[in-house]
Amino acid sequence: MSEVWNMWHGCHKLSQGCRFCPVFQKDYLYGRNPSVVFKTKSFDLPVQQTRSHTHRLNPDDHLVRTCTTSDFFIEEADPWRDDAWDMIRQRPDLTFLIVTKRPERISSCLPRDFGEGWNNVAISCSCETQYLADRRLRYFIPLPIRHKLISVEPMLGPIHLKQYFEQYPTAIEGISCGGEIGSSARICDYGWVLDLMLECTAYNIPFRFTQPGSRFRKGQKVYCIDDDRQKSLAEKSGACYRAEKICG
Ligand code: SF4
Q1: Which of 31, 57, 79, 176 is 20 to 30 A from 208, comparing alpha carbons?
Q2: pTM of the model
Q3: Are 77 and 37 spatial neighbours (Cβ–Cβ below 8 Å)?
Q4: How many Cβ atoms from other residues are within 10 Å of residue 246's Cβ?
Q5: Cα-based distances in Å from 188 to 3, 17, 180, 194, 246
Q6: Coil, helix or strand for 214?
Q7: Does ligand 1 come within 6 angstroms of the Cβ of 21?
Q8: Which residues contact 185 (CB under 8 A, 6 or more apart)?
Q9: Taking a C-beta distance cutoff of 8 angstroms, is the pair 145, 121 a contact?
Q10: Domain-by-domain residue ranges, the chain?
Q11: How many CB atoms lie under 10 A from the CB of residue 168?
């Protein structure tokens, strides 16, 4: 099982995929302002030790999902990010997965010794529509990152990535895509998922369908899907291609 490292908390909405951001919904529920970005108590989790002097952060699959309640490249975290990179540098035994909607900030936020990318860092660019994919991928794809992924979540419309696969045939290690969760979730159409998967298959790019979302359209019918059935239905759909190769 992977583990989560939320070194800071809080964010600002910046695109359509943020509309029903679960971080905002949860914070409002607890009377907290989600736009205030602060360092958490888990800030130094990767270097914390147990009484028996082993690392506290030790997931079975060596995968650490970072910043699930913020964005690793958010401006407010600029003064703290070097320390976070330093802790990542100290844990080559783990893979740190960073998902961001701010790829235009990445190049100015990388550590000096990042070179062509560290082997223990995978960065995924989140693109929920074609418009956002076209805006964000031009920053993201040319960056010196060893493990680059694209996350089409929540998928809010048809997305075609063929032009990027053609232009940069070896740049992207995998694509994941899934629908939106929640009572106000927007529809995810199975046809969009299959079209993207076919593109990935044609260019030999690993693809994983992670979840249908709370409102899922297949053919003419829209299905309302409970949270606890998301993963199993995505797996049952068979919409995947070499998915075991995708980190996360
Ligand atoms: S970038 Fe992510 S965490 Fe920040 S508001 Fe958007 S969905 Fe929420």
Answers
A1: 57
A2: 0.96
A3: yes
A4: 21
A5: 28, 12, 7, 11, 22
A6: coil
A7: yes
A8: 20, 154, 179, 213, 214, 215
A9: yes
A10: 3-7+39-245
A11: 13
Q: What is the DSSP string of 159-212?
A: ---HHHHHHSTTT--EEEEE---STTPPPEEHHHHHHHHHHHHHTT--EEEEE-
Which residues are CB-neighbours of 170 under 8 A, at least 6 positions away? Answer: none
Contacts of 193 (CB under 8 A, 6+ apart): 155, 177, 209, 237, 239
CA of 172 to the centre of ligand 1 (A): 22
Show the tokens assigned to 69.
């309640």
3-state SS assignment for residue 38: strand
Closest residue by CA, ligand 1 atom 5: 13
pLDDT averaged over the chain?
96
Share of residues in the chain with pLDDT > 90 (%)? 95
| Ligand 1 binding pocket includes 23 (Cβ within 6 Å) | yes
Of 60, 125, 132, give the one whose Cα is nearest residue 99: 125
Specify whether the CB–CB gap between 74 and 14 falls below 8 A: no
Whether pLDDT at 248 is above 80: no
Pair of tokens at residue 200: 């990935």
Please name the fold of domain 3-7+39-245: TIM Barrel (3.20.20)
Task: Tell me, in angstroms, the distance from the centre of ligand 1 to residue 10's CA.
Answer: 9
Residue keyed to tokens 């989140």: 126
Token couple for 60: 């079975």
